[in-house]
Write a structure and sequence with these properties.
This protein has 147 residues and is mainly α. 82% of the residues lie in helices and 0% in strands. The relative contact order is 0.13.
């Protein structure tokens, strides 16, 4: 519960202090045509900031998701290392979906996501080592009981 809250909090901070200002600045200065006014109200501002902050907070939950997927045997560190290049593409696409069409904010969200992906590889390896140790311990106790 501690790590879920901590990662969510870091995601909120990152979204609010890094992604939201860049995205709002981009959207405020973006013009399709000089004859089209770029007007926005407080409702659109709040909804944009809320969407960016919550999306960033939920994306920061990647290590927790990998923990549970590793626990049930769905993901292994070897699998994650093998498909690292595919993950980079998915991370960039996810960054494009979360942020407005601004390449700077897309890359700014992709960098911590890639770091979280690397941390997730470590978390998955830790889960596998822990389960192997408990399995070996259980097998050792079973062999002692049969003697």
């Amino acid at each position: 519960m501690f790590f879920v809250s901590l990662l969510f909090f870091f995601g909120v901070l990152f979204g609010y202090y890094v992604i939201a200002p860049l995205s709002i600045n981009f959207l405020a200065h973006y013009q399709v045509d000089p004859s089209v006014l770029n007007e926005f109200d407080i409702t659109s501002y709040v909804s944009t900031v809320t969407m960016l902050v919550l999306a960033s907070a939920f994306v920061f939950q990647l290590p927790v998701i990998v923990y549970f997927l590793s626990k049930i045997g769905f993901i292994t560190p070897k699998f994650m290392r093998t498909y690292r290049k595919h993950a980079i593409v998915v991370i960039l696409v996810l960054g494009a979906l979360i942020t407005p069409p601004d390449p700077i904010s897309q890359v700014l969200i992709a960098i911590p996501l890639f770091g979280l992906y690397e941390i997730s590889i470590f978390v998955s390896g830790w889960v596998l080592r822990k389960e192997k140790a408990s399995f070996d311990k259980a097998m050792g106790e079973d062999s002692n009981k049969s003697k």
